[in-house]
Hints:
GO terms for molecular function: 4 iron, 4 sulfur cluster binding; 8-oxo-7,8-dihydroguanine DNA N-glycosylase activity; adenine/guanine mispair binding; metal ion binding; oxidized purine DNA binding; purine-specific mismatch base pair DNA N-glycosylase activity. This protein is α+β, with helices and mostly antiparallel strands.
Amino acid sequence: MKESFTNALLEWNQNGNTRAMPWKGEKDPYRIWLSEIILQQTRVEQGWAYYEKFILNYPTVQSLAAAPEEAVFRLWQGLGYYARCKNMLAAARQIVTQYHGHFPNTYDTIQSLKGIGPYTAAAIASFAFNLPHAVLDGNVFRVLSRYFDIDTPIDSTAGKKQFAELAQELLPHGQSAAYNQSIMDFGAVICKPQQPSCTTCPLSSGCKALKLGLAGLLPVKTKKLVIKKRYFHYLVLRYKKLIYIRKRTENDIWQNLHEFILIETPEPVDTASLQASAGFREIFGDIRYNIDGTSADFKQQLTHQTIHSRFILMTAAQKPEIQGYMAIPEQDMDNYAFPKTITDFLKKGKLSLF
Ligand code: SF4
């Protein structure tokens, strides 16, 4: 059963797989790594343009390692999960200092790089060096759980071990790159999360889930995703042509990105209640200001959080000192990287309300 699974998959890859991606067949470990980091938690359609931008701006690991952090963050802007970008830059610098600019070529050394886990290490090791390491991502979990009818939860320790062992057993000798690519593509275009193409599936004759009518119930997960709601009130304060921003340094979302003066509340509140709050009074004290307008709700969905942001446009009567924030010329805003919510707000030209 295992052998026929692998053979059918490779056969499909050879004759039926039309999934196009700019990095497909790529052998350069730097480019493979870049694509894998960009694609973590990002759809291929969105990641594609970013991948091309990065390759254009930083064609080698040396050029990426030498780039100023702010420039790399700006290029990353809109992709989210900025820890990935920070780790990517750290890993590029690690490759230059520890490995003289040569991308490491063993699974363990690849995995020792910042931000690289078992999945990415297996992808690079197999695609670039054809090393025998099976990838295990959401697509692989889904395909294997359905084809072999395995209901061990994929987010349990036992499940991870079971699937990792099976994935490794299925890997054909000397064909790691082709096999890994096939199973990921197969999960993305045929054995999809919703409405898998079972009727035309080239693996249907051996698929246990299809036989038992269980495809819709697999894979199994133990934990339900809990999504937290957060309410951000951005005070877009301007004095003449200066605007107040800061860099987010806390261990939280959007680390290293910039933002306007922020007050967060656990529930939605209106502007009057916000003005009366201790947080607002602590920031503004006896600073005289005018409120020029309030935006609608800007919603950004992250994996575990929904961020609701409102922008309150304000002008100060005298130049204020706001602790933790800097006043920058408005025309310099382009030099800073902001989270998507703020760039969406800026793109809509909302600052022109001033
Ligand atoms: S028959 Fe359906 S469930 Fe089974 S591998 Fe094919 S697409 Fe997936």
